[in-house]
């Protein structure tokens, strides 16, 4: 028997309604991606701003400098973590628009691959976040016993 790697659902096609839904989805994805990029930029600006204001308000002690650097680093990490799903979402929207305009199967596949990457990244981030919460709760509980 010959192995068929292609999944065929009776020659699944994108009809007029699906095209409308995908166009609207791409528009919203682009909007959310651009908004996400703006948030990332604001977090970077806030990170640098926090470093400047915290150092000035807390004085020139080593504690103040360390605190300011830690807070700034935290903002930068959040911006970096949030940047990648925004990039994947933006690429999904851009490629979906091109795919629908040009009736291009390769762009459609690349677009859906970017959408898959968006959800995979967000899923992994959620799992890591939940694991960190569980670990922090455990150590908080364990610390309160002793």
SSE topology:
Blueprint: H1 16-58, H2 62-102, H3 105-145
Helix pairs in contact: 1-2, 2-3
In a nutshell, what does this entry contain?
With 146 residues, the chain is mainly alpha-helical. It contains three helices and no strands.
Which key features would you list for this structure?
146 residues, mainly alpha, Methane Monooxygenase Hydroxylase, Chain G, domain 1, 3 helices, elongated
Can you walk me through this structure?
The chain has helices at 16-58, 62-102, 105-145. It is mainly alpha-helical. The protein has a single domain (18-145), classed as Methane Monooxygenase Hydroxylase, Chain G, domain 1, CATH 1.20.58. The chain is elongated, with a radius of gyration of 22 Å.
The low-confidence parts are none
End-to-end Cα distance: 65 Å
Mean pLDDT: 88
Sheet with most strands: none
Number of helices: 3
| CATH level 1 class label | Mainly Alpha
